[in-house]
Request: fold
Amino acid sequence: MGRQRATVSVEGEADLPDSWVSWRLAPILAFMTNEQTSQILLVEDDTELAQMVCEYLQSNGFQVTVEQRGDLAVDRIVQDAPHAVLLDINLPGIDGFEVCRRVRSRYDGLILILTARGDELDEIVGLEIGADDYMSKPVRPRLLLARLRSHLRKHVPSSPADEVREITVGSLKIHLNRRSVSLGEDEVQLTTAEFDLLWMLAEQAGRVVSREDIYPKLVGVSYDGQDRSIDLRVSRLRRKLGDDPATPARIKSIRGVGYILVDDQ
Reply:
């Protein structure tokens, strides 16, 4: 007898696949925090899935709006400037990759790609064009919530009264309050994820920072030994900082351990 796909009955609902039931049950397991003012744009053409994700995030205090077309999402992202964008890849109009390409230079908020396309190449492409994170469907609700909160905590704007924090490592200057980076006289444009990684390395400049330390702070979950997203961010950082990937002078790899940011002068 062939293996049947498991379904669960939820009161008031028809039998639903496991991946859908988790969204129906998740609000019962969730708890409220102080993210009530965080605005999320969900770009997803699956109406039923979009409704479930929307309801779940709203039940956890987020303000969520939905856009189903990629071509229309571009203007909404730029004009509305939400705190985060949850972006599907397979969209009508233009796909999610093209949406990310078009908005990344004009939008400095979070972009999290959610897609059923589990190919590693798709993940690499998404991160290379500026996405801050990438999750494969079916997405576990509480994992999405944990990653979203983790990213947003690091992206809270500083108030004028906050202590000014700036780190200089050789010719590299990193300003936390402004979230700006300069290399000599030139300003370096970084995504949120790239800045967060660079700041973490800069705080420990001259010391090795392991993947096990980096991953939970930047992604929100423990490192599984397989995910390459941190390595990809390092690769993008090196390129933007003019570091030779073959013989890097600023961000060095310590084989089997992690990375170290060093003075290039």
